[in-house]
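Readers of this paper often ask what the protein records in our data store actually look like. Nothing more is needed to write down the fold, since each code stands for a local backbone conformation. Below, we set out a record of this kind in full and without editing:
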Amino acid sequence: MQILTYNFFCRDTALVAKELLGKIFVFENPEGFLQGRIVETEAYLGKGDPACHTSRGKTPKNSAMFGTAGRHYLYRSYGIHICYNVTTDEPDMPSAVLLRALEPLGSTEHICSRRPNVKLAKIASGPGNLCKAFGLNMSMNDTSALRPPLYYADDGFRPEKIITTTRVGITQGVEMSLRFYIAGHPSVSRK
């Protein structure tokens, strides 16, 4: 597997969101290598996108999105669930891709222990569930996604069919078709 580089992330956000489908999200930690195939994403386009956290400017909470592409951006949704994004595009276009769902790969013992009694296909389905299953926390915010311990890799897998639709769970920019998922995949959070 090849680790994705800055050049992959420093491109149009919608394109990155689409091309992340099928890539591997890897977290090397004391428990071992936690891995998941990305099956669902959403693009957030910066200043021109009313649903994007940076649409109203820079704040201490969204400052990671104003840095370079290929950084982790984590935030709390409703003060409860942690959601994970990777920054994209140029620094003057503070944008990111939200990971919505992963298919667990390899050893799943530690992932399953964080979400007991959930079917494996749904264990990392939904942004908050994904972070819980993989043990992601706010200390990872604004760190590099281009090297271990938390990074992306390409194993050559390419989805046969990708569905493009509107984003979910937002109240502004709802008409924008910026959600992408692998057609028919059982780990997708919503059809």
Observations:
- The two ends are 29 Å apart (CA to CA).
- DSSP finds four helices and nine strands in the chain.
- The chain has a mean pLDDT of 93.
